[in-house]
Known about the structure:
Layout: E1 2-5, H1 10-17, E2 23-27, E3 32-34, E4 47-49, H2 55-72, E5 77-81, E6 84-88, H3 94-111, E7 117-122, E8 125-130, H4 136-149, E9 160-164, H5 170-182, E10 196-197, E11 203-205, E12 210-213, E13 216-219, E14 235-240, E15 249-251, H6 254-265
Parallel strand pairs: 1-2, 9-14, 14-15
Antiparallel strand pairs: 2-3, 3-4, 4-10, 5-6, 6-8, 7-8, 10-11, 12-13
Amino acid sequence: MVYVVSGDAQENVESAIGHIPGLGLAASNGVCFSPPTKDSQMKREWHAFDLGVDWDEVKKVVLPVMSKYTARTNGSFIKLTHSSIGWSYYSCDPEWGALQASHLVLELEKDLRAFDVRFVTLKGVIELVPRRLNKGLIVKKVLRDVAARNGGGRSGVDFILCMGDDISDEKMFTSVFSFIAEMEEDSKNVIPSPPVLGDDAHVISTLGYLAHDGDAHMEEATPTTQKEEDASTFAFTVAVGKKASHASQYVNDATDVANLLVSMSNVDMSNDDMCWNNQGTGAEVFA
Length: 287
């Protein structure tokens, strides 16, 4: 099972790669997700984690304030996704934009004390998200679902490759290690994933394990536990770019990512019309 986890909006992710059969999608940093489809003609079904935040009420507080700062900061704009509100000043004068961003956060922090939300500061962007939201939620859920569907324990998951290039991807890496550790834990000590909502906003899973088989949804029992072999033999976390990271390996750049995936797929890509530089036959992965 392959998933692409993006910080972009659901509509943009689906428009870009939603037509690819067999590919799972997760948008808005993993808060909403669509299981893999069997063919490109199937309509995608989207689910979302219930993170305990009334987002409509949050918007009523946040949008008027952000609009005020947008009006006074040339080049800034507001970006809305499923469960985030961003204020981008990337294209503004750097000093003025950073100053306005700091004032915006101070003003909103006071108004948002009643909500379980937090600010994420990225390059040129201030983003407001549910406090519990991170990309690790969807990673752990997918791994749990696969393990449960295939019988649980080590037999349920035999290979993990998790790759990312952003600071927000670090939670994906740590979630892989957390999943491996919990396979040896008593299921009573395992914290379940948040409840999952369907397209019509009703709860379709509260156990944290939602397997998907065609159009059917099956809630599975907690995966069984057993003594596992060394995770380094089947679980690989890979940072893109050499930097401080929780990942156990790294590749140099996005070209290495593409080459690595092609090598793993056994697809003949000798055609010169590839969209990345493939001089040299494979990617180098470093520990």
